[in-house]
Each structure stands twice: as structure tokens, then as C-alpha cells.
Design brief:
The structure is a homodimer of 599-residue chains. Chain A contains 19 helices and twelve strands. With 599 residues, chain A is of the alpha+beta class. In chain A, helix 5 crosses helix 7 and helix 11 crosses helix 14.
């Protein structure tokens, strides 16, 4: 079995639960059919297994070094990226007009997912580049696009996002990097940027930074932030590489995981002039950055799912091949040992992983389908509905996998026992990698405030109405499956509880107290959405079982069991949590810093 | 503030919540009073901060190496251990007759706790030695004690536990190491032992291994296991070191955390004869090993608490000094930033850590007090009650902190954000260290089976009756505090739920299904016990508040708040979990290995 993908499950998600077939019939994706999609996935799996998976442990153990002001990566990094680029996989997500393959986003995500699963440290370089390039496409002038985009699309140059500064992490309002207009359309940038993934490397001849900075006299706070394209090396008018743009690598951060990707402290304009170019309008930097950030946030969720999928597949394979102990009802030491996958608690740990990983996985593809639907529909009203739904789902897409797929990684270690705790096996690496995801692209708390303070209220609560309608459609569709009637009722009741909580919170006269338990709300609402994803899967599995395909019987039964598991073992947890939110519990909110330890 | 101990909280636990004062009046501890205990704790704190904390990051980064068949540790390890030994702290836990200080176990645990908190990698060497020495005291012949004990007590020689083998981790019934009697009272050992912490090192001139092995013709399974003392180097009759005992270091395991402690694969009797000496009776090895394992299991829990305490103290200090963002009700970017400890969700994360860490911390000291009470009481019946209660609490002591104190470490990283994810800050190390604790000394699942399959049934359920009586005594004592009436009711109802669950499980006709959700039962029962510990603390805090000591007001208020937090945010979670256990839910139990991925 593959350690990076369960193709049967991927097909199930894309073709049975969701409507990739229908999408492939659309003119936009006319070049593809199921056969060609399969071929691309085959190619991706092969390159990811051969070139990414094979060096993942090495790249983690021998992390990038800071040498003479430059970042040096492990040589296998460059080789792996070259194989990915050479296979033409760098361009799966771009439109044809930009030199891309114009695959459905769902399939593009499946391709990227395999590489993330195989080796997140290498994969990050290209995915950050794709994000930066997409922002340039969305907000950059034609001139900037002409000059910088082709090399980014082709993977010749990498891209980064430069938001944070040492004193301004979550609080972007407080960034200090300055951009002084030079009068010729360019700007001189000065300041320090922190946590820049891929901020320096020896992989590509240039790096295109997307940098948030402030113009002279701009408004205070986030309203005065502009976005700049800042190349590591200047680019001549003929497209050749010119002088250094004087961005100094001040140091590398040494992370617990994601060690294959350089993470940098960069100084702009310290040792000479650093030139940048405005992307989008003045003071519109944050809004423009969000073009990239929403995509980045779903990618973070996808990354969390993929790290957990790696752990799930590995620990499942291990459990099915590791003999240890005997059944509780027959402890005779003379009888042979059984595989640990036969022990009830190992089953529980594998099932928990399955429920978390495949539940979140389905959500990622559901969102990809929404994006594809937007791209293939001319119905403005429908697209507006989808946009609102995506806004509401984004904090869940980002945060729920960051929490529960990390939990899955914790359990993968437990399945392997002592072996799982050593670096001789990969599961501890996945756990270290995944711990990042709650932190970058907006912390857990920020997404809690986003969903409860903003997203459930936008357009008069329209996003929640849309979600409710979508969930109701799934509940209605489940009516054909009598064995899902309890789950349908539970989901309905859970959604009602979410809505009642939103109303209760809205009635608070203290807006800060109202949001004090926002993280807990985000967590609970995520559970409802994932339960919905499981009901979707169960409906498809139920149809599959009815179709009587013997070869797939165990697969579909597993889906039905995982649905029952999520509804019985997980969904009930939301009740106590939502009660805390609705009651505006102030236990934590009322605390003073002194009360924690007494001084 | 200290990064390894909150002395105010330690005093609160020992003197206000529990009865160290009373213990110090007992003849057994006549040499000590509060003043001398304080002096020992001062000394311990000073040595732990100066010599252990200072090199903890270094020892983690520069882990032991395997060189020419030997393990080489970082030089700071030896220096730190020497400082601990020179301060006389190695002997705090032994009785005077064995050359020990004969401190109350509670205080001995407080001393060890500081060292664990400061640097678990170094501390493990001495604590494993103390465990091995205590087993030798409990089960070894006078001759063996005379020959080996003094050097172990003084810390000149280290000790280890050798249970697992590559093919036999959790399943000790399947160990293959053999011990052939030589006819002169010694045995020739042969076999391979895995996961041996401190199994080889360059710190002490000898290492005393406590090894499980099988005699020729012994019964199959755990009934045929005997325990042997096996020195690394043979010891001459005059006590000097003789020849090598031919224990080969086959390799080191490279763990995610606990990197300061060597973890070894050892081959016995491969390159020459390895001599061992029977400890206790033939085939009584497992029972004898349990003398060490129960102590070891509580120590594992204590280790988990201490790793989490380290993260809690560090992240609290950070949160109180890191400015970032503004209050939700005043986002004016021109206003100064606030400390992150003022943000509601940071308070929630700090409070969650406090509730988990200090709740589990109290349980560890409660158990220590039980042990001290046993040591100071001649009342056989009472001691029997205490023994049963300790049996019941041991799996909780081991597993609950392994789960929730790890969760606390996860939150400590989140409080520090991106910084917390880097090795430039210590919180990611604590998280890596703590992940081990669910694995060694019996996995999570094994403790679940132990508590639900055995401990709640021993002596006709007497242990649960004793626990109930103890909890009821606390509930009765809370009657004076009107503000705790809801918590008292909740605790009472929760305990009732636990008992009902035990009854429901007992009625199952399928013993394997009855235990299928045992881990979840262990988790829920742990929550009830920790809630009890918080009620104990709240009663003491309430008294403290009533006594009107202004200096301690914030401290006591924090304890009251943490009690409310645990009862409101955590305890309600048990209801859904215990329902699954009582209903004998078979969702996971029924699964086949094929159903996870379909083949």
C-alpha cells in the first residue's frame, strides 16, 4: 500500500461524494477526462514517492544551514523540486493563459496533496510560489506580471510571503517596514521581516518576495499597509538577473518540524537599497494579501490533513503487520500472537485517525469543488453564495485539521509505541510537522474571532443560512438510507445548537465577553461541519454498498463505520462546549495575570 | 519568577491542601521540620536551576552518540549529576538504614520534581537508579544488597530496568532472554533487550541492570519470568570492579524527546558470558518488577506533570511580558499594545494549562501522602485500604498527566506562537519530551484495561468503595464553603456516573467487548479524580481567602477560578464518554483491518 495516498479513497471523494465527473464535462476542463486525470495522478504519485518521500527523513535530519549570510539546503531538496518541475506538475493549478495546465482545482489539490504528504519540507517551496504567483495574477499590473510571472509559474523562481516582523506577529497593524517612493515607480524598502518560509535558499536563481510595508504618511494600523513585490535579485528589462537587491539574511529559525524549508529573518535595505514595486493600490495591501491568505489558509488545512494522512497510512500498515499480544479472551502464551490491528484500542486509535483525516480531507475537496464551481459558473448570485460559504468555512478549513489532524498524528505514534517515538520511524516527524499549522496563517484564536465575531454575521448572517441550506440538502438526501436516520437527526440538532449559540452570543451587551470563548465555538462548529462531511460520505458509501460491488464492500463498510464513530464518539462533545459559549462563561475572561501564580 | 517551580503553590499543596505538617510531627520524620524542609527545597531549586536548567537545551541538541560500541553523553550531563550527588540530593528518598535522608516521600518527590522540570534528560539517570535500588531493597537478598546497594544509593553506580525486547514490547509474556543456572548461584544470561534508558553511558563506572529473563523449563508466559541483577562490569568480592560482563551495546535509539538520556539496544551473552543473580524467587520476576513499576508509573505521571509545569511557567512568563495587539473593544492602532496575557484566548490557554498541571500535581502529592501515611502508620487495616486506593489510582496517575499535561505543553507552544515552534525557545522541547509518557511503563491502552478490567473489580470492588468514601469526605468538607456547592453536586453526580458505568460494563456477557472502550473509561475516571483534587484545592483556597491574607489573595482567587474552570470546561465531557463505555459501543470493536482502507 502507498504511504502517501489511498487512491480508492481519493476517487471515492472526487467522483462518488463530490462531482468531479460533472466538472470534467464543463468546457473549462474540456482537455481532461477521468482517464487523463488518472494519468496525472499516477505521474504525481510516482514522482512524489520516488523523489519526495525517499528523502523526507534526510531533509528533516539535515536541515538548512546558515553559511556566510546564505541559506544552504540539503542537495536532495533541489533534486526533488527539479523532478516535480520536470514532470510539469508545477503548473497544474494555473490557467492556460498563464502557461498552466488549468486542471480542476480539486485535482490540482490532489496533486499537491501527494507531495505535501510525501515531503512537506520540499513541497512548501513550490506551494508558496504558487500562492505568490496567484496573488500577482489577481492584483499585479500587467507590467509586473510580464516581468515576473512566467519564471514563477515555471518554477524557475520561487515566491514568498513577508508579513510578520519580530515585534508584529499576529498584530499586522504594528508592522514597521517602510516603502519610500523613489519617484520612478519603484520604492525603497527598509525593515525586518520574520518567519519567512523560503526567504532565502540556494534552489532558484531568484526569489520574489510579496512584502507588506507602509508608505510615508499612510494611516496608522492595517489601513495603511501596502503590498510590494520585492525580488531578491533585481531583474533587468531584458529579463536577465541583475544586481543583488540588498536583502540580508539575518538568520535562520530552527523549527521543531517543517525542517526542510528555510525559515528566515530578513533585513531589507540595510546594506544598500532594496527596491520594490507596488502590487495593487496604495494602502490596499492587506486586502490584496488576503487573496493569497484565503488560499494559503485552506492550504494550511490541507497540509495538516496530509501530515495526518501520512501518519494514518503508516500506522495502519504497521498495525496490520506487527504481531504483539493475544486476544483478551485467549491469553494462552503458547498460542501465536495476533496483529496489533486486532486489539480493540488499536482499532479505536486507527478509527479516530480515519474519522479525523478522511473527514477533514472531504472538507478540503468540498471547498475545492466550490472553487471549481465558481470558475465554471456564470451565475453571479450562485457565485456570491459560494463566496460567502467559503468565507465561513475558511477558518474551519484552517483550524479544525490543525487541531484534530495533529491529534491523529499523536495517535499514529501511539500505535507504533516505542518505535513511533523514535526518529528511525517517520510518525514522530509528521507530528512535529503538523504542530505548526495552528500557528501560521492566523493563529487558532484569530480564526475563532474571525468566525464568531465576523463570519457568522456577514451579510446579516447569510453565510450561516447558506451553510444550513447545504447541510439540509445533505440531510434530505440521506432520507433514502434508513440506517442513517439517527445521524441525520443528530446533525440537524447540532446545527440548531450552533444557531442558538450564535443568537445567544449576539445578545451580549459586552462584545469582548461575547467572543471570550470564540475558539471553543470554532472547535464545535468545525465538528458539525465534519459530521456533515461524514454524512455526505455515508450516503455515497450506502449507494456503493447497494450497488453490490463485492470488491469495494469492506471499503464502504469502513466509511459507514467511520460515520457512526464520528457521530457517536465526537459529535456529542459539542453540547457542553456550545453551552459554555452560549452562557458567555467568563471564568477565563475575568482572570487577572496575577491570579495564575499569585504574584 | 522561577522556571522550574512555584514555591508558593508547592507549599499550598503540601501544607494547606495536604498534611505535611502532621507528617513532620511523626517520629519517622523527627529530623525534619518545615524550616529544614524549606532549606532542602531551597538547595534543590538552586542546584536544579544552576546545573540542570542551564544545560537542558544543549543536552537535547547534542544527544548521546554511539562511538566504538559505547555511548558517549554530553559532558554537561556528568557535571550536572555530580552537582546533584555532591549536594546530597541523591539520597533524599532512602531510609536511614540504607544511608538515606529518610525525607517524607512528598518532599522527596518535590526535590525530584524540580530536577525533572529543569532537565528530564539528566534527571532520568538518577531516578532510574533510585527505582532499581528500591527494588533491590524490596526483593533482593542481603548478600546482593550488601554488594550492590551502597554504590547505587550514593549514585556512584546507575541502575536500569530491562523488560522489553524487540519482539516483546507490551507483551512481556513473549520475552526470550534466557538465564541458565551455572550451579554456583549465578546465571548466564543471553538475549536482547530494547528501549533501555541509561542502558549504557559514560557517567558511572558501573551500571546495575534489573533484567527479566526466563529460566530453563519455566512455565510459558508471564508465569515463567524471573528477575536478575546483571552488572555491566562484574564486581569482585572486595567490591572493586572486575572484568566486563559482556553486555554489548548494539545501538542507540534516537528519540523525539528525552534526548539527554541514552536509550539502548543491549545484547547479553553474545560476546562472552554475561552473569546475573536472581532477585527474589524463581518465576516471581513480574511480581517483583511491579515493586519498581508502580513507583515508576507514578514517576512517569510526575514526569508528565513536570514537563507541563515547565511549559506553563515559561509560557505564563512570556505572556506577561510580550506585547501584541489591542483589546477587542479598542483597536486604535495609535494606542499602545497590551500584553498577550490580557487576550481572552491566551487566558483560556493559560488557565487550561493551570487546571491540568496543578490538578495533576495535586494528585501526585496526594499519592505521595498516601505512601507517607503507610510508612508512618501501624494500622494494618488502614494500610490495606491505602494500598487498594493506590492500586486504583496508579493507572490514573500514569495516564491522565500523559494525556492532559501533553495537551498543556501543546498550548504552551501556542501561547508563544511562532517563537514557541522554534528550538530557540524551550517549550517545543517540553512537548517532545512529554510525548513519551503515554508509551513507557505500560501504554495508555494497557492502563485502560488495568483499571476497567482489574482495578475496579479487586477485592469485590473495594478500591472503588474506598475512593468513593474519600471523595465523599472532601464533598462533606466543602459544605462550609457555599460557593463550592455546585462543584460538590457535580462531583457527586460524576462519581455516580462512574459507578453506574462500572456496573453496566460488569453485566456484559462479552468480556472483550466490555473492555473495548476501557481507554475512554480511564480518561473519564481521571477527570473525576482531578475534579476531586480541584475541590480539595478550592476548600483550602477558600480557607485561605477567609483568613484574610492580602498578599495571597490573588493566588487563592486563581485556585478558585481554576476549580470553576475544571468543573465547567472539563468535567462535563465525561458524560458523553461514559455513555459510550456503559452502552458497550462496538463501533470500533466490530471493525476488520480491511475496512480501514478497503483492502
Amino acid at each position: 500500500m502507498s504511504m502517501i495516498v489511498n487512491r480508492r479513497d481519493l476517487d471515492f471523494t472526487m467522483y462518488e461524494v463530490l462531482g468531479l465527473n460533472k466538472l470534467l464535462n464543463h468546457q473549462r476542463y474540456a482537455e481532461f477526462d477521468r482517464e487523463s486525470v488518472d494519468a496525472i495522478l499516477d505521474l504525481s504519485q510516482s514522482v512524489a514517492e520516488d523523489k519526495y518521500l525517499s528523502c523526507a527523513a534526510t531533509i528533516d535530519a539535515e536541515e538548512p544551514e546558515y553559511i556566510d549570510g546564505k541559506a544552504r539546503t540539503h542537495p536532495a531538496t533541489k533534486e526533488a523540486l527539479a523532478a516535480y518541475n520536470d514532470a510539469g506538475l508545477m503548473v497544474t493549478g494555473y490557467d492556460a493563459e498563464h502557461g498552466g495546465m488549468q486542471l480542476p482545482w480539486m485535482v490540482h489539490q490532489a496533486v499537491n496533496g501527494m507531495f505535501t504528504c510525501a515531503n512537506v519540507g520540499v513541497a512548501s517551496y513550490s506551494f508558496l510560489t504558487q500562492g505568490a504567483a496567484n496573488m500577482l495574477i489577481a492584483c499585479g499590473s500587467q507590467e509586473l506580471q510580464d516581468k515576473y510571472l512566467p519564471n514563477m509559474v515555471e518554477g524557475k523562481w520561487c515566491g514568498t510571503m513577508c508579513l510578520s516582523e519580530p515585534q508584529a506577529g499576529s498584530s499586522l497593524a504594528d508592522i514597521r517596514t517602510k516603502a519610500e517612493p523613489k519617484g520612478d515607480g519603484s520604492y525603497a524598502l527598509s525593515g525586518t521581516k520574520m518567519w519567512i518560509s523560503g526567504g532565502d535558499q540556494d534552489l532558484t536563481e531568484n526569489i520574489i518576495h510579496m512584502v507588506l510595508a507602509k508608505l510615508p504618511g499612510s494611516p496608522a494600523g492595517v489601513k495603511g499597509i501596502s503590498l510590494f513585490l520585492v525580488p531578491k535579485n533585481r531583474v533587468n528589462d531584458d529579463g536577465t538577473i541583475g544586481d543583488s537587491n540588498n536583502i540580508a539574511l539575518a538568520g535562520l529559525n530552527h523549527k521543531m518540524g517543517h525542517r526542510g524549508t528555510t525559515n528566515c529573518l530578513l533585513n531589507f535595505g540595510e546594506s544598500g537599497e532594496t527596491l520594490g514595486y507596488l502590487v495593487g493600490g496604495e494602502n490596499e495591501g492587506l486586502a490584496n494579501m488576503f487573496h493569497m491568505m484565503n488560499e494559503a489558509r485552506i492550504s494550511v488545512g490541507m497540509g495538516a490533513v496530509m501530515s495526518a494522512k501520512a501518519g494514518y497510512l503508516y500506522s495502519l500498515d504497521y498495525a496490520r503487520n506487527r504481531p504483539q499480544g493475544r486476544p483478551l479472551v485467549n491469553r494462552d502464551p503458547e498460542s501465536p500472537m495476533i496483529m496489533i490491528s486486532e486489539h480493540a484500542d488499536v482499532k479505536r486509535m486507527l478509527m479516530t485517525q480515519k474519522a479525523f483525516v478522511e473527514g477533514a480531507h472531504t472538507l478540503m475537496y468540498y471547498c475545492a469543488e466550490l472553487i471549481d464551481t465558481q470558475k465554471t459558473s456564470d451565475d453571479e448570485e450562485d457565485n456570491q453564495r459560494i463566496a460567502l460559504l467559503l468565507e465561513l468555512l475558511t477558518p474551519i478549513c484552517k483550524s479544525w485539521p490543525s487541531e484534530y489532524c495533529l491529534e491523529a498524528n499523536k495517535l499514529a505514534i501511539q500505535v507504533l509505541g516505542g518505535y513511533g517515538y523514535t526518529r528511525e520511524y517517520p510518525v514522530e516527524r509528521f507530528y512535529r510537522d503538523n504542530r505548526l499549522n495552528h500557528i501560521h496563517e492566523g493563529t487558532w484564536a484569530i480564526h475563532g474571532l474571525d468566525i464568531l465575531g465576523r463570519k457568522v454575521r456577514i451579510a446579516g448572517g447569510a453565510a450561516v443560512d447558506i451553510l444550513q441550506a447545504e447541510i439540509q440538502a445533505t440531510i434530505d438526501a440521506s432520507a433514502d438510507c434508513a440506517e442513517l436516520s439517527q445521524e441525520a437527526l443528530d446533525l440537524s440538532a447540532s446545527l440548531k445548537l450552533v444557531r442558538e449559540t450564535i443568537v445567544a452570543v449576539g445578545q451580549s451587551s459586552d462584545p469582548a465577553l461575547a467572543l471570550a470563548n470564540a475558539t471553543i465555538f470554532l472547535d464545535a462548529m468545525g465538528h458539525v461541519v465534519i459530521a456533515w462531511m461524514w454524512l455526505k460520505q455515508a450516503i455515497a458509501a450506502s449507494k456503493g454498498l447497494a450497488s453490490g460491488n463485492d470488491a469495494d464492500r469492506a471499503f464502504y463498510q469502513g466509511k459507514m463505520a467511520a460515520t457512526r464513530f464520528f457521530f457517536r464518539y465526537e459529535l456529542p462533545k459539542i453540547k457542553a462546549n456550545l453551552a459554555l459559549v452560549a452562557d458567555l462563561d467568563s471564568t477565563c475572561y475575568d482572570l487577572t495575570a496575577e491570579q495564575f501564580i499569585g504574584n
